[in-house]
Amino acid sequence: MDPRTPCLIGIAQRTIREQPGPEPLDLWEGVARAAAADARLPVERLDSIQIVYTDSWQYDSPVGRLAERLGATPRHRAYSKVSGTAPQLLIGAAAAGIAAGEFDSALVTGAEALATRRAYRLAGEHVPWSHPADPKPPYGWERPPHPAELAHGLFLPVHTYAIMETARRAALGISIEEEMRDRGRMMAPMTEVAAANPHAWRRTARTAEELVTGDRFVGWPYTRNTVAVLEVDQAAAVILASTRLADRLGVPAERRVYLRGWAYGEDTWEVAARPALGASQAIPRVAEAAFGRAGLGLGDMDAIDLYSCFAIALRQACDAIGLDPLERRGLTVTGGLPYAGGPASDYVLHSTATMAGLLRSQSGHGLVTGVGMHLTKHTYAVWSSEPGGRLGDAAPVFVAKGVPIVGSYEGPAVVAGYTVAHGRGGSAEKGILVVDLPGGGRAHAVVERSELLADAECRELVGEEVRLTSDGKVNVATW
Q1: Angle (CA) 413 175 401, round 5°
Q2: From CA 175, how far away is CA 223, in angstroms rounded?
Q3: Across the chain, what does the average pLDDT equal?
Q4: Which of 203, 244, 451 is nearest to 340 (CA)?
Q5: How many Å separate Cα 75 from the centre of its chain?
């Protein structure tokens, strides 16, 4: 074996339930030291330190502050942008750097303390954390939302993903009741995995019926129990090293896990621009590339963790790769973002660490996927207890082309997908539509009348003709 072959040799996860908990910097340090101990690597010898963007707090120098805490002087440093694919992109960069001989060891870590932030907010207190950035930098978007999306209030994932869910439902001819029932059946086994996961945020097994009827709606048709739980205090870290260094450290062969192959691709950044709102063009290409690089197929996977922020993310993945949502291997090794925890951009570090621990204990192969933005960005990574394959890189294997978006429009249109936004009290507040225009292209619209909101939630609105009026910025739909 090439002595530069990268392998994952250190893992750590931490979940803090007592509130208020520590700040992200403390969490980064804790899991970094734990992962380094697991890898038998002195932390000061880290050649690369990479951190996933944290929503909890903007530090003046995130990587610099962590390196200082660890007493390390890494020659390679990185701090990601916002994205659920960021952990895999950093892991891929670490593996590539090791394979190229640029460095021998790399830490990839991430943490969120959003539950603690919430505790301080509810107490009416300021967060007393260290080293704030001054001035505060812009939010870490790779690209901001489209102006038409912002004008219509369409920027929260709980609404964009729900729109894609209704589009898929209608395309398949599934009733509202069938979709909800199937969603509960798909996600109930995930709660059982989370209940057995000591690092999970929610450790209570739920029935399918409880998940879809036992709680309030957030972005209809999604209930709070079937969407990612963001306000968590969680951290994770992995350490990769060259085989040469792993040998020197005395890491046993059975504790090494290999990135056999991975790939990245993109659907359109704007949901309304998707040629088919309920399906992904990118996922099948990304999965094919990752499996091809790994020299393995879906049937070879002993364990699977699909990114699960919302049901449509699971369903688009299953549709694209031919996976039964109820199949015996299950869809997650952690419990998924709604139950194990959805720490902003950081979840894939947790699924990777959990998968690595599983492959250490039972050997075999595992698939870990990531999703970024509004089902825009996709990563597929094949991990294995056996070396082989070829890594791949972050160059997209596919980039989708979108249909045009019209900002202001008046006249008839046909609903392509929709959701109804609900407030914290549970009441319906506003409908948000994506509509097909007669001359081609798509537009957004809001629904304001309460009787129309009630109508939208009790029958299939996709495919219905509506009429839009506009003030030049916001389109309003009636029927």
Answers
A1: 50
A2: 17
A3: 97
A4: 203
A5: 29
What tokens appear for 103 in the block? 């460095």
In percent, the amount of the chain with pLDDT more than 70 equals: 100
Q: Which residues contact 83 (CB under 8 A, 6 or more apart)?
A: 53, 89, 142, 345, 372, 373, 377
Helix axis angle for 176-195 and 311-321, nearest 10°, is 100
| Res 430 pLDDT > 90 | yes
pLDDT-derived band of residue 140, with 50, 70 and 90 as boundaries? confident
Q: Environment class of residue 215 by beta-carbon count within 10 Å: exposed (0-12), middle (13-18) or buried (19+)?
A: middle
Spatial separation of the C-alpha atoms in residues 24 and 1, rounded to whole Å:
38
pLDDT digits (tens, 9 = 90+) for 327-384: 999 999 999 999 999 999 999 999 999 999 999 999 999 999 999 999 999 999 999 9
Residue 428 · residue 326 · CB < 8 Å = no
Using CA atoms, how far apart are residues 462 and 219, in angstroms rounded to an integer?
Answer: 16
- Please name the residue that has the structure tokens 């001819």: 173
Place of tokens 């629904």: 447
